[in-house]
Design goal:
The protein is mostly helical. The protein has seven helices and two strands; from the N terminus they run αααααββαα. The protein has two domains: 118 residues, Arc Repressor Mutant, subunit A (Orthogonal Bundle), CATH 1.10.10; 37 residues, no CATH class. One of its GO terms (molecular function) is DNA-binding transcription factor activity.
């Protein structure tokens, strides 16, 4: 058994100072909110997602935002392995949300794409996201919203470009 220091010697505070204007804290909070199981379940109920399977919901959500993806890219996007994404895609195919189609640019590859039923759910997901965003900024004036839009867009493009410069496999989405 490992000896533990006296609990009075352990610093239990966050590593980063809790400054509400710290970009790291703001970005982490937004990601945590958007990536939370609670938010996903809420959206799944709102859009009448046909099965109680968060992983399948995330696949439809990502394909709604990005369009058809190679299974490898989908696995990378979801932060899981190819074997796991294959199982999720199979379950999604079984209920008619996605289909595997030949890639137009590489005859050896397949893409995972939304079916018409999956696309309809994807549209409802986008509508729910838009509704949530509008509710969040309801008290903001048009200029504040436009400034946020421009800065978020710029931040996302530059973050993805920076990441792609370190990992060329990521760059296809920018």
């Amino acid at each position: 058994m490992t000896a533990h220091p006296d609990s009075t010697e352990i610093d239990i505070s966050p590593v980063v100072e809790q400054d509400p204007l710290d970009l790291r804290i703001s970005v982490a909070a937004i990601i945590h909110w958007a990536d939370s199981r609670e938010v996903r379940l809420q959206v799944m109920r709102k859009v009448d997602f046909p099965v109680d399977d968060v992983a399948m919901f995330v696949v439809v959500n990502q394909l709604a935002y990005r369009g058809a993806l190679r299974p490898t890219d989908l696995a990378s996007t979801l932060g899981t392995g190819k074997a796991n994404v294959s199982k999720i895609v199979q379950r999604s195919e079984d209920v008619g949300l996605v289909v595997r189609v030949p890639s137009r640019s590489d005859e050896r590859s397949v893409l995972v794409a939304l079916t018409p039923a999956g696309r309809a759910i994807g549209e409802r997901i986008m509508d729910a996201a838009e509704e949530q965003y509008r509710a969040t900024v309801a008290g903001w004036d048009d200029q504040e919203i436009e400034t946020l839009r421009r800065y978020f867009s710029r931040f996302a493009r530059e973050a993805m470009a920076e990441m792609a410069s370190r990992s060329p496999a990521i760059g296809h989405d920018i």
